[in-house]
Design goal:
five-stranded mixed β-sheet, 256 residues, alpha+beta
Length: 256
């Protein structure tokens, strides 16, 4: 059986070694959900936030099979807690699971060079301006596929004000790039950056990232970064982050 956990502290021990802020968001009750095999004495746990699912504790086939398609998610990024979970995902999901390498970035609160970040932020191309995410932009992003992930995990703008932050780049009044919080936790956010396809490779994402990091530092928040690919690692390093390690994840499509 799979149960939604309300007494979230009961899952702490199963995720004790995780340095993933989306897991922290779930454990803190900020956003996302923790599922377990027992509400009183859980041995297996699954943290779900947006497209991501994180498995911990004793591997259980029922949990893996419940990942794709749960809550209407056709696409799921599964992150196994260890090799046994990896083997189980391969066994259960087969051809529907694509093994990928992701890149964990070190969490170093004192690493950022504010002067360098300010210079990078000032590198926004001529004719573009920054604007902080407000309710109008929040609603626009909710309805726009290419930038929906900037706000998708927030139920409404009030929740975003409490647990999120973002900056967008505008060109002729149109949103062309931005950096925002995919998710939030107590003391920080998980950064999500994207640029409209026709405006890429102009340094806009870098400028937006620098601006958002500076705004987070002003508020006393930590801007956490997890990289999907080497290009994301390179951007992170340009902004002052350092690579921690590679890890295995699986991109899984629901089987109908």
């Amino acid at each position: 059986m799979i149960y939604e956990l309300k007494q979230l502290e009961k899952a702490d021990i199963l995720f004790r070694d995780w340095q993933e802020t989306m897991v922290w968001s779930c454990l803190q009750g900020v956003m996302g959900t923790i599922y377990v095999d027992s509400r009183e004495h859980p041995q297996t746990a699954m943290a779900r936030l947006g497209d991501f699912v994180f498995f911990a504790g004793r591997p259980d086939k029922e949990f893996v099979l419940s990942g794709p398609g749960r809550g209407g998610h056709e696409f799921t990024i599964m992150v196994p807690g260890d090799g046994a979970w990896t083997d189980l995902i391969v066994e259960c999901c087969g051809k529907n699971a694509r093994r990928v390498v992701r890149y964990a970035i070190q969490k170093e609160p004192d690493v950022f060079d504010r002067e360098r970040l300010q210079k990078l932020a000032e590198g926004l191309p001529e004719g573009m301006v920054f604007e902080m995410m407000d309710e109008r932009l929040f609603r626009y992003c909710k309805e726009t596929e290419w930038c929906r992930d900037w706000v998708a995990q927030y139920d409404d703008y009030a929740m975003y004000q409490n647990w999120g932050m973002g900056v967008v780049a505008l060109k002729d009044g149109e949103v062309v790039s931005g950096a925002s919080s995919y998710s939030g936790y107590r003391g920080g956010i998980e950064i999500q950056i994207d640029t409209r396809k026709d405006c890429r490779r102009q340094g806009i994402a870098c400028a937006c990232g620098a601006k958002l990091i500076l705004e987070c530092l002003k508020r006393g928040w930590y801007p956490s970064w997890d990289a999907q690919n080497p290009a994301s690692v390179a951007l992170a390093e340009k902004l002052g982050y350092h690579l921690d390690h590679e890890y295995t994840a699986f991109e899984v499509m629901a089987d109908h």
